[in-house]
């Protein structure tokens, strides 16, 4: 096992993938708890489609993929929140409208530029080889910013998550903190898509939170457990991917599934 880990760490692309993946996994787990409790967990799936559309457009235009995708996905996250709060379009319908429209725009950009290429396919299914040094630097900086903001706003995010009306009555600007949650989610999704792919990134948002809720009841307990599960799932999944030649994103999601089944069985037994 030690020899396998040493061999993995000898490859720079695996070190890059691990450094970004651990940060994204941690951010996804923390935000996922809030999104699941607010019954907005499918925002990850919707934003991943938006991200794919933005990535496709960036590749078609020859622009920086992450440089374009991050602001577009953050804007889409804020738009989803506004659609839900201020229009007759609610929840999953708003997610569907925004995500499908963005995906259609991306596919159109690809067709006009000459068709789908391998790079865009990597964004759709994920690839540990897709992380360049510039991507790693940008991803680590943005992930660290997400983590720092979550920690600084933890108490108010907790209040907004559990009782938004009470939080508003106590003077908390609930609209602002909902926007912060949406923006942080958008950044996390955009950064994680390079490694996990548009079709699997939402698994990092949903699985750790739902798994932790099988055993834990307090918000802090669920948050800490979700973080531990997410980090462990990423490391185990990445190792399995390297050892067995499996796709990294799929391996990580399958390990998350295994944790969910184990925690579910333990919860029923208790």
Explain what you see:
- This protein is mostly helical and 270 residues long.
- It is built from 13 helices and no strands.
- Helix 4 packs antiparallel against helix 10.
- The protein is globular, with a radius of gyration of 18 Å.
- The protein starts with a helix and ends with a helix.
- The model has no long low-confidence stretch (mean pLDDT 82).
Question: Brief description of this entry?
Answer:
The chain is mainly α and 270 residues long.
Distance between the termini: 33 Å
Radius of gyration: 18 Å
Q: What's the total helix number?
A: 13
Number of E-state strands? 0
How does the major sheet shape up? none
The topology string of helices and strands comes to: HHHHHHHHHHHHH
List descriptors:
270 residues; single chain; globular; mainly alpha
Question: What is the secondary structure topology, with strand pairs?
Answer:
Elements: H1 2-9, H2 12-37, H3 43-61, H4 65-86, H5 91-113, H6 118-125, H7 133-152, H8 154-162, H9 164-169, H10 174-196, H11 202-212, H12 219-244, H13 248-269
């Amino acid at each position: 096992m030690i020899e396998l880990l040493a061999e993995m760490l000898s490859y720079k692309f695996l070190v890059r993938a691990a450094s970004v993946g651990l940060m994204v996994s941690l951010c996804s787990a923390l935000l996922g708890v809030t999104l699941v409790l607010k019954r907005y967990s499918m925002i990850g799936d919707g934003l991943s489609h938006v991200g794919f559309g933005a990535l496709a457009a960036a590749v078609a235009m020859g622009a920086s993929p992450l440089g374009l995708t991050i602001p577009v996905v953050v804007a889409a996250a804020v738009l989803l929140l506004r659609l839900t709060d201020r229009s007759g379009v609610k929840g999953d319908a708003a997610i569907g409208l925004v995500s499908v429209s963005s995906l259609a725009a991306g596919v159109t950009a690809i067709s006009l530029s000459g068709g789908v290429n391998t790079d865009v396919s990597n964004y759709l299914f994920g690839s540990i080889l897709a992380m360049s040094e510039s991507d790693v630097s940008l991803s680590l900086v943005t992930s660290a910013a997400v983590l720092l903001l979550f920690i600084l706003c933890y108490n108010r995010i907790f209040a907004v998550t559990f009782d938004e009306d009470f939080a508003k009555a106590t003077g908390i600007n609930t609209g602002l903190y909902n926007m912060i949650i949406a923006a942080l989610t958008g950044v996390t999704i955009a950064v994680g898509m390079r490694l996990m792919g548009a079709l699997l990134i939402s698994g990092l948002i949903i699985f750790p939170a739902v798994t932790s809720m099988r055993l834990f009841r307090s918000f802090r307990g669920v948050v800490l457990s979700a973080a531990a599960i997410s980090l462990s799932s990423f490391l185990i999944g990445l190792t399995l991917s390297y050892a067995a030649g499996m796709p990294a994103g799929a391996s990580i999601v399958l390990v998350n599934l295994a944790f969910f089944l184990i925690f579910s069985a333990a919860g029923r037994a208790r």
